[in-house]
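Explain my protein.
***
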Amino acid sequence: MSDANHSTARFIAACRRRRLALAAGGLAAMLAAGCAPGNGDGEAILIDRQGAFAVGGQVLGDPDIASLHCDHGVVEYQIPPSPRAVNLLMWHSASAVAWQNRWDGGEGFQSIFLRRGYPVYLWDGPRVGRADWGCAETTYTPGLGRDQQNFVAWRFGNEYPNWFEGVQFPRDDPEAWDRAMRARYQEFDTVANMHLQSDAAAELADRIGPTVALTNSAGGLRALLTAMKSDNIKGIVAYENVGYVFPQGEGPGVPEGPFGPIEVPLEEFRKLTRIPLQMVWGDNVEQSETYGSRLERSRLFAQLINKYGGNAEVLLLRDTGLIGNTHIPFADLNNIEVADLLSEFLSTHGLDAYSR
């Protein structure tokens, strides 16, 4: 285990000790350290402001005769009293719902990090979710078997219904399964869509100010492109990112597909060296043909970021003592411990200060 992973394991252990101290009046110390006091259920969440708005997009046609507002994104936000200075933008290419609750109905990252004092923004990029009015024609065809494809794609197991041993999903809870299978959007995974969504997200970041993007799956590539378009992206924590940006001539040498890889001039790539980057991976990755290659691609990406003076790391949750995590670890049963690692990242890179 690396020194960095020893550090994260120690942080998790320290947070657990602080939770045990809560009954003895240790809440203030826990919050100061960035740890949550528990799952938070039953405790009030303090919110100073909340709402939603659209950003980006264009208007087709003549606004005085016949027009259409389209290709915008929609963001829902909640801001606690006396917030921290950096926003958390939670971005999932499949569904924003995964940030709101664990699969068993427990608190998700939205509530956990509101309790920790961060302004939280849930993002639906153009043409998905609450932002589904696009400027181009799209089609949808129902596909029987997509539930079973989710089972494999989200790494609950390698073949439905054979679960991985110790998986951090409430496998015997039919409501949890139903909740997970309904947490999907059409994703439109093309490089053109990556640019469309990142254009709108860059406008969002420039509007709300300093922001750390928390992403999952194909949201990661979209956020990397956004960071090259807005100086207000101050960091990215990508949970199981499946697509990467590389300097021209230094990529993995495979054809561009729905998730890239995208090669850009070195000058553009260097923009990503200005911010801390962390690629987080769950368990059982080596048992998946798809994710094993994506993990190796994340290591190449981190190597190149660091080669050009940046700060990137690949973190395997199992190396910190967290076992059984899936493709969506922030919705898993142990998401408090996953959140503790995020708090450590934010603290390490000075992204946890409070607003003055």
Q: What stands out?
A: Residues 212 and 235 are 5 Å apart (CA to CA). The chain is about 30% helix and 20% strand. The chain has a mean pLDDT of 91. Residues 46-135+144-348 form a domain with the Rossmann fold fold (CATH 3.40.50.1820).
